[in-house]
């Protein structure tokens, strides 16, 4: 197959968190194979030791990935700090700048999936999920932000999830809450980043990793389609390449597919203010509850413009 002009990362420096195994490992390997110098971050174990203990075979997975990259002729350095610790998160970015002189790319991939019915979920479980899945990306990205400002830009990819961002999943309330928060963080960062050349996007991956192996397999189509993590890596690397051009966008990738994920707002039922009531909603429920027609605003400003348009369609301004 003709690859055409190969997309490269020569001269770029990338940080990939949670890169010792699974998706993060594949992201780091592909970036390095295309010329990027990579900080491979992984704590080497999971904060959920009870679930993952059987799968923790390598005491230093980050180091092993680095060895693999160097053996292939690439450049990489291992970091074993926790993204949830402020000093640890800072060290990840600092290692990139000290070892390779700059930082151009951050892929916030480190995560923990804690499963428990909502009725019996502990506050500690929720806190742990928020610490790793939301606070961690915040800390790493914020540390990198200043360097990117000085360099004139950069690209950040937050690994989100269809759980929390789009749908929800059974026994995943803590994870859903954190990943939903990460989506909000992504949107806010993207708005501010647009003004300074920093692009921030979200990727919702589907892959069979050790995290997937430890949950109910009926919740995934792993037996029906190819869900190897290496089939997500091209999508992640595309989204952090300068040729991509997206900002504030979300995409789903699994099994060799990439597709946009977006928020739609139904046109809905717009009434005259003095007539709007529960009964009017009941009598117009089909229009109020319908998915179509819909709009997909990219910013709060665009959403507000939609609100004004719908209001004026029924309530035209009074001419002076």
UniProtKB/TrEMBL annotation:
GO molecular function term, any single one: oxidoreductase activity
Listed name of the protein: Short-chain dehydrogenase
Source species, domain of life: Bacteria
PANTHER family, per database record: DEHYDROGENASES, SHORT CHAIN, SCP2 DOMAIN-CONTAINING PROTEIN
Keywords: Oxidoreductase
Phylogenetic classification of the source organism: Bacteria, Pseudomonadati, Pseudomonadota, Alphaproteobacteria, Sphingomonadales
Similarity remark: Belongs to the short-chain dehydrogenases/reductases (SDR) family.
InterPro entries: NAD(P)-bd_dom_sf (IPR036291), Peroxisomal_Beta-Oxidation (IPR051687), SDR_fam (IPR002347)
């Amino acid at each position: 197959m003709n690859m055409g002009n190969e997309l490269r990362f020569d001269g770029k420096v990338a940080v990939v968190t949670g890169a010792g195994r699974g998706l993060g490992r594949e992201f780091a390997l592909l970036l390095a194979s295309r010329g990027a110098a990579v900080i491979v971050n992984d704590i080497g174990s999971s904060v959920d030791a009870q679930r993952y203990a059987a799968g923790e075979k390598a005491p230093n997975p980050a180091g092993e990935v680095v060895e693999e990259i160097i053996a292939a002729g690439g450049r990489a350095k291992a970091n074993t700090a926790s993204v949830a610790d402020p000093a640890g998160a800072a060290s990840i970015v600092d290692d990139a700048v000290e070892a390779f002189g700059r930082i151009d790319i951050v892929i916030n991939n480190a995560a923990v999936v804690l499963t428990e019915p909502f009725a019996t979920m502990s506050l500690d479980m929720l806190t742990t999920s928020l610490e790793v899945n939301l606070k961690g990306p915040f800390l790493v990205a914020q540390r990198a932000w200043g360097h990117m400002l000085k360099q004139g830009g950069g690209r950040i990819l937050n690994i989100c999830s269809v759980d929390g961002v789009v749908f929800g999943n059974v026994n995943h309330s803590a994870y859903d809450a954190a990943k939903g928060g990460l989506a909000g963080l992504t949107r806010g960062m993207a708005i501010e980043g647009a003004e300074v050349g920093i692009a921030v996007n979200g990727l919702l991956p589907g892959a069979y990793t050790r995290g997937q192996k430890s949950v109910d397999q009926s919740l995934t189509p792993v037996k029906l389609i190819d869900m190897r993590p290496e089939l997500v890596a091209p999508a992640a690397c595309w989204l952090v390449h300068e040729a991509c051009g997206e900002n504030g966008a979300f995409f789903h990738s699994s099994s060799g597919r990439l597709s946009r994920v977006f928020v739609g707002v139904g046109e809905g039922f717009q009434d005259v203010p003095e007539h709007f009531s529960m009964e009017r909603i009941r009598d117009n429920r089909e229009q109020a509850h319908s998915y179509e027609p819909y709009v997909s605003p990219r910013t709060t400003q665009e959403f507000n413009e939609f609100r004004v348009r719908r209001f004026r369609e029924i309530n035209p301004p009074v001419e002076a």
